[in-house]
Design goal:
alpha/beta, about 160 residues, three-stranded antiparallel β-sheet, YbaK protein, globular, 5 helices
Length: about 160
């Protein structure tokens, strides 16, 4: 998928890494890594170590929620944090995701979006020293220290997932 900025998603991601001065090992797989479970199986790590980059529109404001693969977003918590009513927080459509981030659903990287997004990282990610996130495609991932991920993504830390039961 080439987008209107002329960059393929993998190129955009690698350019973002370079601009941030991050030397990350991008792993590409034959099999899909577009779900947390598939990525964890391909890498051989815990599902929680996979970062789900979930795209929302918060009353028209693009927002990425970075969430551990073994957790679910609590949309009421996220909406409250963003200062919007629950009904004003919607998952982005695949078309919105592609147009705003330049990545397709299943390959949304936490950095390198075509347009600025608010970014919120869930506190549950802090259980891990390093995590794996999509590298711009549904077949590629990269490993990054949790603190570095939040810093380079410009993320605000918050508890935005459902409580474990």
């Amino acid at each position: 998928m080439q987008t209107s900025d002329g960059l393929e998603p993998a190129q955009r991601f690698r350019s973002a890494l370079e601009a941030l001065g991050i030397d990350a090992d991008v792993r590409e797989f034959e099999a899909s890594t577009s779900t947390a479970e598939a990525a964890a199986a391909a890498i051989g790590c815990a599902t929680g170590q996979i970062v789900k980059s979930l795209f929302f529109m918060a009353d028209g404001r693009p927002t990425l929620a970075l969430v551990a693969g073994d957790r679910q977003v609590d949309t009421a918590r996220l909406a409250s944090l963003l200062g919007v009513g629950r009904k004003k927080l919607k998952m982005g459509s695949p078309e919105e995701v592609a147009a705003i981030t330049g990545y397709e659903v299943g390959g949304v990287a936490p950095i390198g979006s075509r347009q600025p997004c608010d970014v919120v990282a869930d506190e549950s990610l802090r259980r891990f020293a390093t995590v794996w996130a999509a590298a711009g495609t549904g077949h590629s991932v990269f490993e990054i220290a949790v603190a570095t991920l939040a810093e380079v993504a410009g993320a605000q830390w918050a508890a935005i997932t459902r409580d474990e039961r």
